C-alpha cells in the first residue's frame, strides 16, 4: 500500500489544493492527515470540506480542538489565539461537529499517527528528550509499530532509532529498515516553518519500505490576500512567504 501523509493544513486552501494535485500523480491508495486542519489562515470551512470530500483519514490537532471549544487558548500566543477565535465564529455547525469527532490517534499497518507527542497532542517533539520519550512510548504500544508519524512542529523530519541512538535522516528518501524504528514529520501543508515556503508532505510505500518527502509550490499571494482581507493578524500572512 502507498500512503500519503499530510499535516498542519491550517485553513490554507491554496496549499491544500496544490498538495492534493501533487498526490494525485503518485499512485496513492490512502491519505492521512495528522491534524490542525484549521487555524491561522482564512479558509477553515473549505479545508474541512475538502478533507472530508477527499476521504482523508484525519486526527485532531491542538488548533482543531480549540477551534471547536474543546479546550481553552490560554497557552496560545496572541496571534494564534486570535485566529482560533476568528475560526470559532466562522466554522459551520456541520464542520464543527466533524472536527469534534476526529480521533486523537490512528493505528494502521505498521505505523501510528498522532499530532504532537504520543502522550500529549500539545507537546512538541523538538528536544532529544522528546525524541527518546516518544521512541519509548512507540515501542511500548501493542505490536510495536515501526513508524510514528507526527506533526505540530511544522518541521519536516525523519529520525531513526538505531540501538540506543537517535539519528536524523537528512535525505529526501529514507529506507525503512526492519531493525530500526522511526519518528517522521511530513512538514506542514499550510504554514511551513523550516525556511522553505513550499507546502510539504511525504509518501510511505509499505511494500518498498521507503518514505519520500515532497515540496510543492502554491499560490501564496492569494492565501496572504485572504488572510489580510479577513482581518487576521498580518504577521500570519507575512510568515507564509518566509516559510517561518
Ligand atoms: Zn499546527
List the helices and strands and how they pair.
Blueprint: E1 2-6, H1 13-23, E2 30-33, H2 44-53, E3 57-58, H3 62-67, H4 78-90, H5 93-100, E4 105-108, E5 111-114, H6 128-140, E6 147-149, E7 157-162, E8 165-168, E9 173-175, E10 181-185, E11 199-205, E12 210-216, H7 220-229, H8 234-242
Parallel strand pairs: 1-2, 2-3, 5-6, 6-10
Antiparallel strand pairs: 1-11, 4-5, 7-8, 7-10, 9-12, 11-12
Helix pairs in contact: 7-8
Residues 8, 10, 36, 61, 63, 152, 154 line the site of zinc ion.
Strand composition percent: 15-25%
- Total helix count? 8
Helix content: 25-40%
Looking at how many chains there are and whether they match, the oligomeric state comes to: single chain
- Tell me, briefly, the overall form: globular
SSE string: EHEHEHHHEEHEEEEEEEHH
Rg from C-alpha positions? Answer: 17 Å
Verbal overview:
The chain is of the alpha/beta class. It is built from eight helices and twelve strands. The strands form two sheets. The chain has a six-stranded mixed β-sheet with strand order 3-2-1-11-12-9. Strands 4-5-6-10-7-8 form a six-stranded mixed β-sheet, with helices on one face. Helix 7 packs antiparallel against helix 8. The model has no long low-confidence stretch (mean pLDDT 97). The chain binds zinc ion.
Amino acid at each position: 500500500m502507498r500512503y500519503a501523509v499530510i499535516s498542519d493544513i491550517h485553513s490554507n486552501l491554496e496549499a491544500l489544493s496544490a498538495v492534493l494535485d501533487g498526490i494525485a500523480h503518485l499512485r496513492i491508495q490512502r491519505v492521512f492527515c495528522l491534524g490542525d486542519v484549521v487555524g491561522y489562515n482564512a479558509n477553515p470551512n473549505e479545508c474541512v470540506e475538502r478533507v472530508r470530500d477527499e476521504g482523508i483519514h484525519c486526527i485532531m490537532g491542538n488548533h482543531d480542538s480549540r477551534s471547536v471549544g474543546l479546550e481553552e487558548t490560554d497557552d496560545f500566543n496572541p496571534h494564534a489565539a486570535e485566529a482560533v477565535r476568528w475560526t470559532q465564529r466562522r466554522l459551520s455547525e456541520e464542520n464543527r461537529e466533524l472536527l469534534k469527532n476526529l480521533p486523537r490517534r490512528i493505528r494502521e499497518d505498521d505505523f501510528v499517527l498522532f499530532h504532537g507527542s504520543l502522550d500529549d497532542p500539545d507537546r512538541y517533539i523538538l528536544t532529544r528528550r522528546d525524541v527518546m520519550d516518544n521512541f519509548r512510548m512507540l515501542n511500548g504500544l501493542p505490536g510495536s509499530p515501526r513508524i510514528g508519524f507526527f506533526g505540530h512542529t511544522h518541521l519536516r523530519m525523519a529520525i531513526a532509532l538505531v540501538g540506543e541512538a537517535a539519528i536524523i535522516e537528512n535525505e529526501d528518501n529514507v529506507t525503512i529498515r526492519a531493525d530500526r524504528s522511526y519518528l517522521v514529520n511530513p512538514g506542514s501543508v499550510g504554514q511551513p516553518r523550516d525556511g522553505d515556503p513550499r507546502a510539504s508532505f511525504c509518501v510511505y510505500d509499505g511494500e518498498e519500505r521507503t518514505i519520500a518527502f515532497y515540496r510543492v509550490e502554491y499560490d501564496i499571494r492569494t492565501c496572504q490576500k485572504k488572510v489580510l482581507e479577513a482581518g487576521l493578524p498580518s504577521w500570519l500572512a507575512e510568515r507564509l512567504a518566509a516559510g517561518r
